[in-house]
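Notes from the 1:1 (GR / supervisor)

We went over the backlog. Supervisor wanted to see one worked example end to end before approving the batch request, so GR pasted a single chain during the call. The sequence is below; no edits were made to it. Supervisor asked that the structure be written out right there so they could see what the output format looks like.
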Amino acid sequence: MTVLVTGGGGLVGSHVIEALRAAGEPVRALVRQPGWVGGAEPVVGDVTDPAAWRRAAAGGGGRGIVHAAALVAPRAPFAEFERVNVGGTRLAVETARATGARLVHVSSVAVYGRTAAYAASRGGSAVDEDFPFQHLSERDYYARTKRLAEELVRDEAARGGLSAVAIRPNVIYGERDRLFTSRLIQAVRLGIVPQVGPGTNHLSCVYAGNVAAAIVAALELTGPGFRAYNVTADAAPALTQREFIGAFAEALGVRLRRVPVPLIVAQLGVKVWTRWLRLTRPKRYAGLASAAVWFLVGENPYSAARAQQDLGWAPPFDARAAIRRTVAGF
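Structure output shown during the call:
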């Protein structure tokens, strides 16, 4: 039976299609415009358009829906984030109900709160799926709408008649990533990168192919209701900040020079940067600055133990293998 994947041309969606096709699964991809869909049957349309969903679900009886499409771009107004991230999810729920398909909704650890998870980890606590949602900045449109979307899925599942899973990745890297990965590769290619702090911490990121493996596993769950899973680490061994960036340099064939940046200098720089952003850019940019610093210097605070236990998820790629695949893809 067919699996419908939204956002098939994006980072997570494209890796899900690859994983499903490798397993011999028929896949239909709802995409905004014609392009590479990795052997899936393309359906061109917008996730906020009910007619596009009807075309994508034509024939009914689909095995599952993977809703990976989302708006991430920081320049969009809140109304646009809400239209895509919440409105699109509402149509995904309606389609899953109508077809009897399991819904796997790609959420984010941003629902917990940008800095709250790092604060908890500094206190010695791992952030698992029972960690209570914390305050979100009014101007963090992405996190706000991802939380609203996940709450919509949870509430609809509680009404009955819907089987749904939310997958919560942290920062995702991999081939076809136009955000974090492309910027990191550009920086490493210059041959000079800052090393914030001692570089011995483990970055809070995960390879898209490992996220896809968890999503495919979630399609196999049985029973009604709603479940959420952190999917937040590659296969062992975990790489430190220094090793992670060094692995990109090695894959790129770049001899890397590191410029040490003491943590206190980075924190001061963030304060100056935040003040500049408040004067020159929309204020919501500034709220992400401290979270970016903690990403660079903090430990990965998220526990993926529940996904490993319930889904039988074992990340198929360690970070070095994932980085080699990523660089080859670029």
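Supervisor's comment: The chain has one domain: 3-329.
Batch request approved.
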